[in-house]
Design goal:
By secondary structure, the protein is α/β, with parallel strands linked by helices. Helix content is about 35%, strand content about 15%.
Length: about 250
């Protein structure tokens, strides 16, 4: 299966053969759902924690003698029926929400998600992801050149400025200088996958909303499904094959 590769200027330069074992599978929605549930369950944090009668402070002494007082029998003031006592059947932080899923199933679900991105033309491959100056404007320039391939959509207008003078000044300024590409006006949902220099790419692109950077050996189902587009470096394909086709 041939797939197009672009350079940083957004030009088509060559095609690459994608591995059909990764990018051309029949999609099983049930399996993908199972992988997502397993990953989200493992990520879940247990916060609620209550104390039972054995953990609450105090209550070592019997409140009053067993008989002869005319009152009900009690052995501890930390009983759940007393104010300040322990909680009966309350939640504890030793609960485990993890769900078991086999490695082969999880890996196949990952391949199905990659297949879906290829089938929908939502995966873009560039020859290299290299930013010499470590500046965000370098990444913005890359997105500008690939905006048509990534199918970026403009956001709806939020508010119309009331002050007519500001509008006139802005229009006059735009006439004098060339219009700049404003990434804030576009809806971005891109997962950037790198084979190397992941930390560098994170510094360059990590502060842009809607963009997340992952290493090619750290792919997962949830992040792929959470982002509309995949942006890969060409060298990431080799890392994906070596990591997941064992």
């Amino acid at each position: 299966m041939k797939y197009q590769i672009y350079n940083s200027a957004g030009e088509k330069i060559k095609q690459v053969a994608l591995n059909p074992a990764i990018f051309s599978l029949e999609i099983n929605q049930g399996l993908v759902h199972q992988a997502v549930v397993a990953q989200m369950s493992a990520k879940r944090k247990v916060l609620a924690d209550t104390k039972d009668r054995g953990e609450v402070r105090g209550g070592g002494r019997k409140p009053w003698q067993q008989k002869g007082t005319g009152r009900a029998r009690h052995g501890s003031s930390r009983s759940p029926i007393w104010v300040g006592g322990g909680v009966t059947f309350g939640p504890t932080n030793d609960r485990n929400f993890k769900k078991k899923i086999n490695k082969k199933m999880k890996r196949k679900a990952l391949f199905m998600c990659l297949t879906d991105r290829v089938a929908g033309k939502d995966m873009v491959i560039v020859d290299k992801l290299d930013f010499k100056d470590n500046k965000t404007k370098e990444f913005v320039a890359l997105i500008k050149n690939l905006k048509d391939v990534l199918k970026l959509k403009k956001l709806s207008k939020r508010k119309v400025e009331k002050d007519e003078k500001k509008k006139e000044e802005r229009k006059a300024g735009e006439d004098k200088k060339q219009k700049k590409f404003d990434l804030k006006k576009y809806k971005t949902s891109i997962l950037v996958v790198t084979a190397k220099n992941t930390a560098q790419t994170s510094r360059v692109a990590g502060n842009i909303p809607g963009i997340k950077v992952l290493g090619a050996n750290s792919l997962n189902v949830v992040d792929i499904l959470a982002h509309k587009n995949l942006l890969l470096g060409e060298d990431a394909l080799e890392v994906i094959e070596k990591t997941y086709l064992k």
